[in-house]
């Protein structure tokens, strides 16, 4: 009996997963989306993404040196932040704005909280929100196939036909699913994001219920509000936000029940912002708002300790 109940020092549950392995798995899963971005927007997509990664890594290096922390820019977290920030901005954005947004993502979205694992909000979305507030025209100027204009969501918002949006002619659902349309650099192809998301689910890095509930909620609510639900879920940053930002291990609830509530609330906020708000896209702001509620969700849904009684 002594051998059965014998227990050594913690940790008692061990795994081969490390921060670096998880980060580079996520980066690998984003390769299809980057490939589609290169196909749709050309070499500019690679330039913006590469520049974004470099600025994020440099900012984190300087911050860790100033804060006298161990330099960990090779663990993949800064690289991932750079890629995700690049994915949520127009590919034609000035590199000056890109650099400022990346600097804010790392400094205000991550390092002021103490670094990786301590941040409350998704760093890439903090940078995006800052750029959106500071240079709204640059964030809403989209170019596709040499033409400038509104995205599918922007066109739907003002009640215009899809044909007036930046989308390749043909079946609009198919083109939106494949990513043949204007928009933010890495958000356009729902198919590419879906491939990456399935890989992350297979690797057990994310909870499949979060993107499923989040996307499903947007589909149902926009349908009830009289909008085309298929275009709503295939356009904008819903898929990227659902698979890569709402599932962030640091800024999402740590209990299964908490993640379900979190995902449902995200879907409601996105649908309401898109339909009733002044801006046609609401994924980024919805995630940032719900990030602020995560500590509260964790507090009230913390699991009971093993063997504890009320």
Summarize the structure.
The chain is built from 16 helices and two strands. The chain is mainly alpha-helical.
Describe this protein's structure.
There is one protein chain. The protein has 310 residues and is an all-alpha fold. The protein has helices at 2-5, 19-29, 31-41, 43-66, 77-87, 95-107, 123-134, 136-139, 152-157, 172-178, 190-202, 209-224, 229-234, 238-245, 256-276, 283-300; strands at 142-144, 147-149. The protein has a two-stranded antiparallel sheet with strand order 1-2. α6 (95-107) packs across α7 and α12 (209-224) runs parallel beside α15. The longest helix is centred in the first third of the chain and has 24 residues, at 43-66.
Kindly list the characteristics that best describe this protein.
globular, single chain, 16 helices, Ammonium transporter fold, mainly alpha
On the 0 to 100 scale, the average pLDDT is 90
The CATH architecture is Orthogonal Bundle
- Unreliable stretches, pLDDT < 50, 5 or more residues? none
How many angstroms separate the termini? 30 Å
- Contiguous helical run count: 16
What structural class do the secondary elements suggest? mainly alpha
- Strand segment count: 2
What's the helical proportion of residues?
Answer: 55-70%
Strand order of the largest sheet: 1-2
**CATH secondary-structure class:** Mainly Alpha
Rg result: 20 Å
In percent terms, what proportion of residues is strand? under 5%
């Amino acid at each position: 009996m002594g051998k059965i109940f014998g227990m050594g020092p913690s940790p008692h549950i061990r795994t081969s997963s490390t921060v670096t392995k998880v980060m580079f798995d996520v980066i690998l899963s984003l390769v299809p989306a980057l490939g589609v971005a290169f196909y749709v927007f050309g070499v500019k997509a690679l330039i913006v993404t590469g520049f974004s990664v470099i600025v994020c890594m440099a900012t984190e290096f300087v911050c860790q040196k100033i804060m006298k922390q161990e330099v960990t820019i090779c663990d993949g977290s800064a690289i991932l932040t750079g890629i995700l920030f690049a994915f949520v901005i127009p590919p034609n954005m000035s590199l000056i704005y890109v650099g400022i947004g990346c600097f804010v993502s790392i400094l205000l979205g991550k390092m002021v909280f103490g670094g990786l694992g301590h941040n409350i909000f998704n760093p890439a979305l903090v940078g995006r929100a800052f750029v959106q507030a500071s240079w709204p025209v640059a964030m809403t100027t989209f170019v596709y196939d040499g033409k400038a204009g509104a995205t599918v969501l922007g066109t739907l918002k003002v009640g215009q036909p899809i044909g007036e949006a930046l989308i390749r002619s043909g079946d609009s659902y198919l083109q939106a699913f494949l990513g043949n349309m204007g928009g933010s650099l890495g958000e356009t192809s729902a198919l590419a994001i879906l491939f990456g998301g399935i890989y992350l689910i297979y690797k057990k890095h994310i909870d499949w219920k979060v993107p499923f509930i989040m996307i499903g909620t947007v589909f149902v609510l926009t349908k009830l509000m009289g909008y085309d639900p298929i275009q709503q879920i295939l356009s904008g940053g819903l898929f990227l936000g659902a698979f890569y930002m709402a599932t962030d291990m640091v800024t999402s609830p740590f209990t299964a029940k908490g993640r379900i509530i979190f995902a449902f609330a995200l879907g409601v906020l996105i649908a309401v912002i898109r339909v009733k708000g002044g801006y046609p896209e609401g994924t980024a702001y919805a995630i940032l708002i719900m990030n602020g509620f995560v500590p509260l969700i964790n507090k009230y849904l913390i699991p009971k300790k093993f063997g504890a009684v009320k």
